[in-house]
């Protein structure tokens, strides 16, 4: 049931920007735990925004609210969400484990389980665990996609000084929790 509450909180945070109403924080102890989180918006199945926090710097409830508003209105890849569009959007909340540094070895990456985050030459990027299966990528393609997301050459993961972190995520898809 709390999974549904996470999705509702993200949707309420976005709706509050249109209505001017204050977001009411549900009373779950889990929302007070510091966690990394990303909120993804999809419109007709296509990405419409995705912003979040890889590290547990915020309480989960606050992180969901901030990430949802940022995904809707501040993702630099998209114009700010319009109210009419909002009804067509589905929300996905990904609650992250703490990222753990690991070698950039394709054989160590579990597709569909691991999310990846990298840093190289002061540039960085992150791809959530669901991205590789959605794109039909293998581990090498996942590393290449991560590098390109970071604005790097696709083979930067092979370079000395490239740093990689793995994390897992509890992925809460609005359509799935609404069906249950």
Which keywords apply here?
Glycoprotein, Type 4 Pilin, Dna Ligase, domain 1, 2 domains, four-stranded antiparallel beta sheet, globular, 180 residues, 6 helices, 32% helix, alpha+beta
Description:
The protein is of the alpha+beta class. Helix content is 32%, strand content 27%. It has 2 domains: 2-96, Hypothetical protein ph0010, domain 1 (Glycoprotein, Type 4 Pilin, 2-Layer Sandwich), CATH 3.30.700.20; 100-167, Hypothetical protein ph0010, domain 2 (Dna Ligase, domain 1). It has 6 helices and 8 strands; from the N terminus they run αββααββββααββα. The strands form 2 sheets. A 4-stranded antiparallel β-sheet has the order 2-1-3-8. Strands 4-7-5-6 form a 4-stranded antiparallel β-sheet, covered by helices on one side.
Strand content: 25-35%
Provide the low-confidence segments as ranges.
none
Q: Report the CATH topology name of the largest domain.
A: Glycoprotein, Type 4 Pilin
Oligomeric category:
single chain
What is the 3D form? Answer: globular
Number of helices: 6
* H-E string: HEEHHEEEEHHEEH
Count every beta strand, where a strand is a DSSP E run of 2 or more residues. Answer: 8
Structural class: alpha+beta
Write the layout of secondary structure elements.
Elements: H1 2-19, E1 36-43, E2 46-53, H2 60-73, H3 83-86, E3 89-96, E4 100-102, E5 115-120, E6 123-127, H4 131-135, H5 139-149, E7 163-167, E8 169-173, H6 174-179
Antiparallel strand pairs: 1-2, 1-3, 3-8, 4-7, 5-6, 5-7
Helix pairs in contact: 1-2
